[in-house]
């Protein structure tokens, strides 16, 4: 039997609220190390809120977030940024900012206020551009790029941080099918060849089932199911969580669960 990966980041008894409105209650969720985890669930299920909390952008009102076994609140913002890169929905860059300048901003956790640009900084940026296929338009302005190119540029910036964890909030939104596939293949590459731990909020159940090794199904701020796609994606779970009747068959190409709405 394969050894189960250890948890890279985990929530223990986590409560999250916006003001008096509780979004997540008593959440226990472990994200396996060096795996691609997809968070799926209907709107309002807490997916993006959980992702923000894992990135230390929100503070839970109860419980704790552990990063490599340490309470994330015990780490400085810079220390968290050295380990965790995050890309939220609809990021906006200043007008005229180039891809290269954007990617260089990813090095801020590793540099002091008056430090000089180092060979390590340059190498990290060049590798991030290469991995994301953005080297050829590094001198172009972000606002001149297509949606897929912009998304890859933002991911390059997070990769320049050289963190072990990458958190992506709906990264395929507004991308056409070609660029969605391109992005999902990039995520798979980052996990398989570069040992990244990736967590992505996805709306497409079949996309999550095909590409992610670990799927977490959320409803009303609670984990309904978590595990490999074969164990998690079922007609019963989809009906319970999404209120949609489906037939789940075997994807003839990938061999993963494929949901067909009735």
Order of neighbouring strands in the sheet with most strands? 6-7-8-3-9-10
Question: Structural class of the secondary structure composition?
Answer: alpha/beta
State the shape: globular
CATH superfamily: P-loop containing nucleotide triphosphate hydrolases
**DSSP summary, beta strand count:** 12
How far from one another are the termini?
37 Å
SSE order: EEEHEEHEHHHEHEHEEHHEE
- The CATH topology annotation reads as Rossmann fold
CATH class wording: Alpha Beta
Helix content: 25-40%
The parts where pLDDT drops under 50 for at least 5 residues are: none
Instruction: Quickly count the domains.
Output: 1
- Rg is 19 Å
Task: Write down the overall mean pLDDT.
Answer: 92
CATH architecture: 3-Layer(aba) Sandwich
What is the beta-strand fraction?
25-35%
In short:
It is built from 9 helices and 12 strands. The chain has helices at residues 47-54, 77-83, 99-105, 119-132, 147-160, 177-194, 205-211, 229-232, 235-242, and strands at residues 7-18, 21-32, 36-40, 62-67, 70-71, 84-87, 165-169, 197-201, 214-219, 222-227, 246-250, 257-261. A 6-stranded mixed β-sheet has the order 6-7-8-3-9-10, with helices on both faces. Strands 2-1-4-5 form a 4-stranded antiparallel β-sheet, with helices on one face.
Overview of the molecule:
The structure is a single chain. The protein is of the alpha/beta class and 262 residues long. The protein has a single domain, classed as P-loop containing nucleotide triphosphate hydrolases (Rossmann fold), CATH 3.40.50. The protein has helices at residues 47-54, 77-83, 99-105, 119-132, 147-160, 177-194, 205-211, 229-232, 235-242, and strands at residues 7-18, 21-32, 36-40, 62-67, 70-71, 84-87, 165-169, 197-201, 214-219, 222-227, 246-250, 257-261. The strands form three sheets. Strands 6-7-8-3-9-10 form a six-stranded mixed sheet, with helices on both faces. Helix 3 (99-105) runs parallel beside helix 5 (147-160) and helix 4 (119-132) runs antiparallel to helix 5 (147-160). The longest helix is centred in the C-terminal third of the chain and has 18 residues, at 177-194. It is globular, with a radius of gyration of 19 Å. It starts with 6 loop residues before the first strand and ends with a strand. The mean pLDDT is 92.
